[in-house]
Amino acid sequence: MNTRNLKCFQTVYEEKNLQTAASKMFLSPQGLSKIIKSLEDECGAPLFVRTKEGFVPTECGKVFYEKSKIVTKDLNEMFSSIKAINEQEKRFKIGFASGTIRAIDVAVIRNYMAENPEINASWHEQENENVFKQVENNEIGFGLVVGKIEDAKLKFVKLKSIDVVLYVYKGHRFWSESEVELSDIKNESLILMNKAHRIYSDVINACLMNGFNPEIVAKVAEGQSIYQLVKNKIGIGVSPKFFPDTDNIKAVRIKDAYTWDIYGIYRADTPDFDLIERLIKKLKA
Predict the structure, then answer these.
(1) How many C-beta atoms lie closer than 10 Å to residue 225's C-beta?
(2) In whole angstroms, how far apart are CA 146 and each of 143, 192, 199?
(3) Which of 222, 169, 165 lies closest to 193 in space, CA to CA?
């Protein structure tokens, strides 16, 4: 008897229909029926009466259900506690600012995590400022962020620079241009990454400094959505140059635009300097 078999029984009990329960468990009805029969053999008593209306629990089945829910609850709590302790023992964590996972060589970090079991291997992106704060507060050992700030506690190493460009669709007035001024986009419908990305505030501020408030028609979570919206002529997109030109979409340089700089950051007093230094070397290779 295992937790999977208990869950199978509970699903049949709750659905009272073998076909429906099997679909929820991603099993065939025949396979699920064998599991129920195996549980009945192990218990030495029928747990269901098979009728035209479905699976009706016996008195033994009702008792088995109530007790099995207690068992699975206790097991889930046990596994959660073990997982939490295990994650605490993995003392070194890496934080990712929104957009950085697309920009870096994921295979390098994945392999490095596998080689160093003390690293907590999670891949959650969050706002740039949150990663700064977590590194500063010693909640994570190493962060991948966009841009840098003045902070004596932190060390910054530039890992990659990506041009910020304008993505336009075929037929747009910029299609034949290789470069445009930022002021040229004054009356354009713009598609930007949302506020979780530093590029959002950077573009807004740059436009305001050039004397206009940009018309933003879409704010998206990642670059691929910008590409899809531009493709469908919803507007033109401002984004790091993540995508190649095609017959229908191309990147146009923005004159004097800044680059999208990815930095690795860590505390100056970190005890894990050797671990961080080796990771940085791999990322810069």
Answers:
(1) 17
(2) 10, 16, 9
(3) 222
